[in-house]
Specification:
Layout lengths: L1 H12 L4 H14 L7 H10 L6 H14 L2 H13 L5 H17 L2 H18 L4 H12 L9 H10 L3 H30 L9 H26 L5 H19 L7 H33 L1 H12 L3 H16 L4 H19 L3 H16 L6 H10 L3 H24 L2 H10 L7
Length: about 425
């Protein structure tokens, strides 16, 4: 295990992509043991040969269509007509737009890119400090993996063999709660710094822009409503989102042409291929863990050490925070969750509650240097140095850590909604 970890981090230090480094280090360790090497390609294929896994390319593609097809633009215009005149109105619009986009894309960098490309220039033009604008969009973009649908929650569900639909429900209240926290912080910041909003829109203008945006606003309702009603699975809802997004972008807003499809598909394939390669490589890591009985050994060590549940929670959250600085969410889940599952069972920690704790930690990983993906997205949009984005996001990191503590202390925030539809989930 030590050889595996050392070789993995050496490859990361040499700037080898995470997926390739994870696979190579595991192959090296397995190759030095008396292990049947023919199982490796079979294991990688089996890890990807899963019906729920097909939800990932679906939601990635839906998010890109929404960003390129005008849906996000009209949603922002409608939100701005309603709350843009309030103190901190532009910042509030940014967070609300991120929350709505999050309910479609399931991706944090996609949310930051789609909303940031419109709102960062608007915030700067409205007098906001550029550093603050970068931090706000980067933090708001993290809602993309907490508010369902969520790619990390899909991976968590597949790995832990838990209901993806129930995991999505577990993320609703914490996701909306974090949205409210970010909005309150934005309003307080605006009042302290004397930021005024836009000129107040007329009711006629609000009605016109809301009517224009209603097609996009209906998409989250369609996705989540179809899942929670039991009409479709999360995978099938991803296909519905793609078809709906294409129809609205091409025939209602008419901002997507046939020639745009190539760029949209290429971008979607690139993102999906990266995620799937990580999953395949991580499956080899899991194969080694199973073969060496690492989870059982760690679980036995925890039991023998008489560690209590709170020490464990502090330790594991610190571990996630450190890993989030260097790895992206899918890698962290696939590497750590198989080891943690028996320990969670030992302490009696609810897997749905832990899923949300883990996801908020993954959100923090999106905005912590040196490998916070959202930081690269917003700095690229604003054409600023990465250091400016890092400085702008520090207050939001502190705010999200405080919110994480609240979610840990109050499991009911995560468990109440799933408990309404799943009797096996006990809500405290």
């Amino acid at each position: 295990m030590l050889i595996l970890l050392i070789s993995f981090f050496i490859l990361l230090f040499l700037r080898v992509p995470v997926a390739i480094g994870l696979g190579l280090s595991t192959i090296f360790v397995l190759f030095t043991s008396d292990f049947n090497m023919n199982m490796m390609p079979q294991r990688m294929f089996t890890a990807l040969d899963s019906f729920p896994m097909m939800a990932i390319p679906g939601f990635v593609l839906a998010g890109i269509i929404m960003a390129r097809g005008g849906i996000s633009k009209y949603l922002i215009e409608a939100l701005r007509s309603w709350v843009g005149h309030l103190p901190g109105g532009l910042a509030v619009v940014t967070i609300l737009a991120c929350a709505i986009f999050a309910a479609i894309s399931g991706s944090s960098p996609a949310t930051a890119a789609a909303i940031g490309s419109i709102m960062i220039p608007a915030l700067i033009a409205g007098g906001y400090n550029k550093r603050y604008a970068l931090g706000l969009v980067a933090a708001g973009g993290t809602l993309g993996i907490l508010i369902p649908p969520s790619v990390p929650l899909i991976i968590y569900g597949i790995t832990s063999e838990e209901s993806i639909g129930s995991l999505f429900m577990a993320g609703v209240i914490p996701g909306l709660g974090l949205t409210v926290v970010l909005i309150l912080a934005a309003v307080i910041y605006a009042k302290r710094n004397g930021f005024k909003g836009d000129e107040k829109a007329t009711w006629a203008e609000r009605g016109r822009k809301s009517l224009k945006a209603i097609w996009g606003a209906f998409l989250p309702i369609l996705i989540l409503g179809s899942i929670y009603s039991g009409a479709v699975t999360p995978t099938e809802s991803a296909v519905i989102a793609v078809v709906y997004g294409l129809l609205v972008s091409a025939f209602v807003y008419r901002e997507m042409k046939l020639k745009d499809l190539r760029h949209i598909i290429v971008e979607s394939v690139n993102v999906t291929a990266m995620i799937f390669l990580i999953i395949g490589s991580a499956s080899l890591f899991g194969l080694y863990l199973t073969n060496a009985q690492i989870p059982q050994a760690v679980g036995a060590w925890i039991a023998a050490s008489e560690m209590n549940v709170w020490i464990f929670m502090i330790t594991v959250n610190l571990l996630f925070f450190v890993l989030g600085m260097f790895l992206e969410a899918v890698s962290i889940i696939l590497i750590t969750l198989p080891i943690l599952l028996p320990i969670l069972d030992h302490f009696g920690i609810n897997l749905y509650h832990f899923a949300i704790i883990m996801t908020i930690n993954m959100e923090l990983g999106m905005i912590t240097p040196p490998v916070g993906l959202n930081l690269f997205v917003v700095s690229g949009i604003a054409k600023e140095k990465l250091g400016e984005a890092v400085k702008g996001v520090i207050p939001f990191i502190v705010l999200m850590i405080l919110y994480l503590v609240i979610v840990i202390l109050f499991p009911q925030l995560s468990l109440w909604l799933p408990s309404l539809t799943n009797s096996s989930i006990v809500s405290p």
